[in-house]
Structures are given as structure tokens and as C-alpha cells.
């Protein structure tokens, strides 16, 4: 069933019509930014939200624009410096050719090869479970009230490599508030599309993952301002191999938590199942916070290789607790034994 | 006699160059900057993969010779084995250089704590002992014990398949394929031994 997100027929003011806090804050920041730009020659002041930087995308590489409404959204995106790391971003080429998106194959290059014709428009997302406004929504309506931000995050894969990626997205918290979770909404589960026609690995007889891929967050993790719903990267729409058209980005957790091509967001009272935890519970926990002190049973997590690396410089760096985002998220896990709840 | 040895030489070169191709391919990818964002990982896994394939080829010699009468294969078995050792050496060298950056703390940690690395290192030690005793001179010097020593190829192959299986994340099609091949090749030898 396809239901429009915002009904204009009722006399009441829907809570969804009230500008969410982050939006008006952004508007305020935008005004400040505009003012600061005007004042720049005098004060040399730099703002929180600034124009999105131009990322270098070689002309021979595919770039994605998405449908018209997405283009407009992307054109209005602003850079959020407060939520960006100052590290060098990975070249676009490597970000779109080194992917773990097992639905399209398990080799790092497979997604770039086999997701080329993946259909990401039209796209619908089902919101279900413990919310006041469940339903199936068009992606356009999901995005409608949210302004996009350009945020540069570290991405740390559980396989001990990492990249720095500029995402375009909006805080998941803002999205969640619109659907008015009830007091029973303690967890959020996300689900990737199940489409055996388009996703070869979902047809494989030799995989251990029970498709569709599912991931989850505790509600306070989901509401953390770092948690991003991304629709783009490098100033463009998401390439299919990077999880178009809508994906999660949780920068303080291992990459597999940042589920791609989301078709369902479900709110529940109990901890949801997550794909890698079902597949190998002793290796992948529900939380999967980046933690150099807790090794994966088969390999170490103390260091990582920042990609792209070259043969002459393996670019090995120490992995940081919570992937360097401890200040923003460590409080979420106060009193928890993170050795056990890995 | 002359024609036979020329044929043998031609075969030797064809096999020698064929098994060198994977390395040349990797070098080509390296020179054209086509190893991807994580060249170290790609190089290491490809070298390991070809070490396994060469070892499996050397293990296939006996069954193929017996089943299809390809007696000439035995003349090249040493080459297959040495190629397996060659790719395994490069695999290990690439691991230490490009993945661990010769950082002793990382190497020590990997070799002592990672079960699949330990198994791989053990397999390499076995291959090393076979490679250094692979010459005709050593064969003569060791006599009967040479054959016994070279039975180590069987435990080595089992360690290598464990090393490979231990790295399965989700899809196990390749591991299953090579395990079945190994089971057939080792099973065939047991069958022959029982029958005789």
C-alpha cells in the first residue's frame, strides 16, 4: 500500500508539519552562515554550515544524480564542519570500487560490477512497529522535510581497513521523530531490499547469510546526532554499490552496521536480530562498536589500514575506541561491559 | 629419442610459462595501478590462491596419471610443487611487507594469535622442507626417507585448506570446491593403497 506521508486534508496541524528542531536550527545556522560570509572579510569567521565542498570526480567515472527531486535536495546541501573529520577523504574511484555489499558478490570489486543496473527509483520504505504513523512511504516523502548535510566521516570495516567518506544525508533522529515512536520503541531494525532477480548473491546456494540483510540499533544510538541517513556521497547521489538510494551511516560502529538500500525501518521493544550476528554470533555482536581492545576471533582490531593504501605505504594506523567518536557516543555505553557486549 | 626430449622440453616451457602467467598478470595490474584501493590485500590473497592451485595441480598428478594414463605429467610434478612453494613464499612475503609493513608487533601478534595464520605458517614450513629437499641430489642422499619426507605434502594440503576455510565470511563456494577436489585426490590414494 502506498500512502502519502503528509495529509493536507485534515484541519489539524500535524506534528510532521511543525518544523523539526534540527531543521530550524539548520536554518538558523544557514542564516548565520550567510551573515558570516558577508562578515568574512572583516572577521575571518568560519561557520558551522557552509556551502558543500566540490569533490573531485574524474570525468570517466560514473556519477549519480538520482531523480529530479533528489537533484534539488542535493543542490541545497550544506557542509557540516562540526560533524566532519579533518582527514583526507578517499578518492571517489576507490570509494565506489572497494565495497562490501554481499548481495552483489563477496569480492570487493563485485558490487561495482554487478550493481550497475540496480533499480533505485522508484523506491519505497516501510515504517512499522511501535510508531504512531506506520505505513509505506515513497522515498521522496521520506526525504521531503529534511535538508541534506555534507558530513565527512571515518568508515571502519570489521576487516581492519578504513576510509574517510563525505556523505550527504540527514540525522536519523529527525526522521524517527516524524513517525512518533511510542514508549515501546526501544530498538530500531533496518532491512535491505530482498530482490533475487537483481542481487545474485541472494540466489547463491553457498552463502551463510539469511537474506534479506537486517541490522539494528538501540533507540538512543539511533537518536544520536552522529547517526546519519545517507542518500549521497561526494556531492552526488549514492552509487548503487554504495547502498543507493537510502542507507544508514553509523560512524562509530563497524561498517556492516551501516546497512545499505533500506526498504524497511521497524521499531520494537526487544533487541532485533542482525544478519552477521545470526551468521556468526561469537564473531559479530549486536553493538559492533569499533573497539581496538576487543579482537575479532580470527583477526586483530588493534590497527587498521587506511585506504587507499599503496604497496610501499600500507598506511597502518592505530584504531581508536569508537572509531574516534568516543566524545560523542561513549556515554551511551556507560556501565556496560564492552568486552562481553561487543 | 631426440624428438621425445624436444617434446618434453616444449611441454616444460608451456607449463612453466602458464604457471608464471598469474604472477605476470599481477605485475601488470600493479604497473597499471589496477590493484584497487587495497592492493596489499588483493595481492596477498591472489598469491595465496595461486599457491593453493599449484599445490592442487601437483596433487592431481597421481590420479590423472593413473586414470587417464598421462604418464608424462610426473616429469613435471617437481615444477608444480616448486611453483606452489614459490607463490606461497611470495604470499608470505607480501603479507609481511604490504599488510604488516614489517612491523614486528603486528607480525608477532598475527603469527601467535590468529589460528588461520598459524595454520598457514605451519603449512609453509612443511612446503619449505619439501622445497629444499626437492633437488635430485637430495633425493639421492635421502634415499627411502625422501619419499617418506615428501608424504608431508598431504598434511600440508590439509593445513592449507583449513587456512582457506578459516577465512570464510559468508560465501563458501570456492572453499567447498577445493575441499571436494582435495578429498577426491586424497581419497583416490587411499583407495589405491587399500586395493594393493
Automatic annotation (TrEMBL), chain A:
Q: Report the EC code(s) recorded for this entry.
A: 1.8.5.-
> Could you mention a single GO BP entry for this protein?
protein repair
The first-level EC class reads oxidoreductase
Record's keyword terms, sorted: Metal-binding, Molybdenum, Oxidoreductase, Signal
Catalytic activity field: L-methionyl-[protein] + a quinone + H2O = L-methionyl-(R)-S-oxide-[protein] + a quinol; L-methionyl-[protein] + a quinone + H2O = L-methionyl-(S)-S-oxide-[protein] + a quinol
Q: Which domain of life is it from?
A: Bacteria
What cofactor does this chain's UniProt record say it requires? Mo-molybdopterin
Q: GO molecular function of the protein, one example? A: metal ion binding
Instruction: Name the residues that bind Mo-molybdopterin.
Output: 99, 102-103, 157, 192, 242, 247, 258-260
Q: Signal as a keyword?
A: yes
Q: What PTM annotation applies here?
A: Predicted to be exported by the Tat system. The position of the signal peptide cleavage has not been experimentally proven.
Residues in coiled coil: none
Question: What InterPro entries does the database record attribute to this sequence?
Answer: MsrP (IPR022867), OxRdtase_Mopterin-bd_dom (IPR000572), OxRdtase_Mopterin-bd_sf (IPR036374), TAT_signal (IPR006311)
Q: Where is the Oxidoreductase molybdopterin-binding domain?
A: 118-276
The note describing how and how many cofactors are bound reads:
Binds 1 Mo-molybdopterin (Mo-MPT) cofactor per subunit.
Q: Do you know which Gene3D superfamilies this protein is assigned to?
A: Oxidoreductase, molybdopterin-binding domain
Role this protein plays? Part of the MsrPQ system that repairs oxidized periplasmic proteins containing methionine sulfoxide residues (Met-O), using respiratory chain electrons. Thus protects these proteins from oxidative-stress damage caused by reactive species of oxygen and chlorine generated by the host defense mechanisms. MsrPQ is essential for the maintenance of envelope integrity under bleach stress, rescuing a wide series of structurally unrelated periplasmic proteins from methionine oxidation.
Which family does the similarity line name?
Belongs to the MsrP family.
Per UniProt, subunit arrangement is: Heterodimer of a catalytic subunit (MsrP) and a heme-binding subunit (MsrQ).
Protein name, entry field: Protein-methionine-sulfoxide reductase catalytic subunit MsrP
Q: What species is this protein from? A: Amphritea balenae
Give the organism's phylogenetic lineage.
Bacteria, Pseudomonadati, Pseudomonadota, Gammaproteobacteria, Oceanospirillales
Designated gene of the protein: msrP
UniProtKB/TrEMBL annotation, chain B:
Membrane topology per the entry is:
Multi-pass membrane protein
What superkingdom does the record give?
Bacteria
Which cellular component, as a GO term, is one annotated location?
plasma membrane
Compartment(s) of residence: Cell membrane; Membrane
Q: Does the keyword Secreted apply?
A: no
InterPro entries on file: Fe3_Rdtase_TM_dom (IPR013130), MsrQ-like (IPR022837)
Give the cofactor binding note.
Binds 1 FMN per subunit. Binds 1 heme b (iron(II)-protoporphyrin IX) group per subunit.
What cofactors are annotated for this protein? FMN; heme b
Domain Ferric oxidoreductase intervals:
47-160
The UniProt keyword set, sorted, is: Cell membrane, Electron transport, Flavoprotein, FMN, Heme, Iron, Membrane, Metal-binding, Transmembrane, Transmembrane helix, Transport
Any one Gene Ontology molecular-function term assigned to this protein's record? metal ion binding
- The residue ranges crossing the membrane are 9-27, 47-68, 80-102, 114-132, 152-169, 175-192
Q: Does the keyword Isomerase apply?
A: no
Question: GO annotations under biological process?
Answer: protein repair
Name the job this protein performs.
Part of the MsrPQ system that repairs oxidized periplasmic proteins containing methionine sulfoxide residues (Met-O), using respiratory chain electrons. Thus protects these proteins from oxidative-stress damage caused by reactive species of oxygen and chlorine generated by the host defense mechanisms. MsrPQ is essential for the maintenance of envelope integrity under bleach stress, rescuing a wide series of structurally unrelated periplasmic proteins from methionine oxidation.
- Entry's family note: Belongs to the MsrQ family.
The record, for PANTHER family, names: PROTEIN-METHIONINE-SULFOXIDE REDUCTASE HEME-BINDING SUBUNIT MSRQ
Assembly, in brief, is: Heterodimer of a catalytic subunit (MsrP) and a heme-binding subunit (MsrQ).
Q: Which protein, by its recorded name, is this?
A: Protein-methionine-sulfoxide reductase heme-binding subunit MsrQ
- Gene behind this chain? msrQ
